[in-house]
Design a protein that fits this description.
7 strands; about 60% helix
């Protein structure tokens, strides 16, 4: 059995070359990034006494800008079991990696062929650093010099540090995005809770007599601000700041003013949070006591309903038996005391 992982919106190196050209996709730094990722994958496989055997442009998937994945790794071990020893297979992986790097550098899939190899190496020497040329030579001559993946890992260790730095930067960015989503979820919860309480028809019937009026003033303070000329004030920063203080329950005092200006109350956010929690708890208890389908305990059927259900079940079984044995009359089938086991008659 083969297990596949699906990665959306990925192109193979061969597909990218045919559609956009290798020169438009892979720059010098991108080539080193691809090499480092493949070297890490080969190191993991070789240390587990496994060989990749599928390092070809059509089997290298590129996700996003430079995230590399190897497709069909290990599949040849089942389809075509190897006859060579393990060291030979590892050297073939390194040679295949050398061909792949040469194709990326020359921006041509035919650059690694035997007739184009001298000209391709001249192009690499002229356009790239001596380090890149030496890497390609070491990979292509892995079979003669007994080069292992550990030697290649030591050779590209300097570029591994750049990859590690990029990984940390990507991690910091994702962590920041996750933190912002957590903050958004926290504000959404406190906003939904406040909306349930203030906008509910039961508002004003809670046991806490001071909660409805304070929460109504809090709702007006957050969303119904007015300036000196009586024009509405729409300020997102004020809403976010107020919801954060309400959710945290800070000790800061806030001045609440009624719409007609007759009442002026000075109360802390902590007290407002306590009022909100009490009102939300009372609303939740009232919802649990109501005929709510989501919280109501299912009613057990009585004896008459059970008998009716059993009769309907027997009728359905008779209809099924007639469909299964259309040439046999229904009278030749008799139920055994209402059970699901049927005893056929003589036919």
């Amino acid at each position: 059995f083969f297990f596949f992982f699906f990665f959306q919106a990925e192109d193979g190196i061969r597909d990218a070359q045919e559609s956009r050209g290798l020169g438009d996709v892979y720059k010098r730094q991108s080539i080193w990034s691809i090499v480092c990722q493949i070297v890490c994958a080969l190191r993991h496989l070789h240390l587990q006494n496994l060989a990749c055997r599928v390092l070809a442009p059509s089997k290298i998937l590129v996700q996003g800008r430079s995230r590399v994945r190897i497709s069909c790794a290990g599949m040849l071990d089942l389809v075509s079991p190897p006859t060579q020893d393990f060291m030979t297979l590892c050297q073939e992986d390194l040679i295949a990696l050398g061909r792949l790097v040469l194709q990326l550098c020359c921006r041509d899939l035919a650059a690694a062929s035997r007739e184009n190899l001298p000209r391709s190496m001249e192009f690499v020497e002229a356009q790239y650093s001596a380090e890149m040329k030496q890497l390609v030579w070491q990979l292509l001559s892995a079979g003669n010099k007994q080069v292992t993946i550990l030697d290649i890992s030591m050779f590209v260790s300097g570029h591994m540090m750049s990859e590690l730095q990029g990984t940390y930067e990507a991690y910091d960015e994702l962590e920041g995005q996750a933190a912002s989503e957590v903050e958004n979820g926290r504000l959404t919860r406190i906003l939904v809770k406040l909306s349930f309480v203030v906008q509910h028809p039961m508002f004003g019937q809670f046991e806490s007599s001071e909660a409805p009026y304070l929460l109504k003033l809090t709702w007006d303070y957050i969303f119904h601000q007015m300036d000196e000329e009586g024009c509405p004030v729409v300020e997102y920063a004020h809403v976010v700041d107020s919801l954060n203080k309400l959710d945290m329950g800070v000790d800061e005092q806030v001045m609440l003013v009624s719409s007609d200006g007759a009442d002026l109350l000075c109360v802390s956010w902590r007290d407002l949070k306590d009022c909100l929690e009490k009102a939300a708890h009372e609303l939740l208890e009232a919802s649990a006591d109501s005929q709510n389908a989501y919280v109501q305990t299912p009613v057990q059927p009585n004896q008459d309903q059970l008998a009716q259900m059993q009769q309907m079940q027997m009728q359905m079984q008779q209809m099924q038996s007639q469909q299964w044995h259309g040439e046999v009359g229904a009278e030749e089938w008799q139920p055994d005391n209402g059970s699901q086991q049927w005893q056929p008659g003589d036919y």
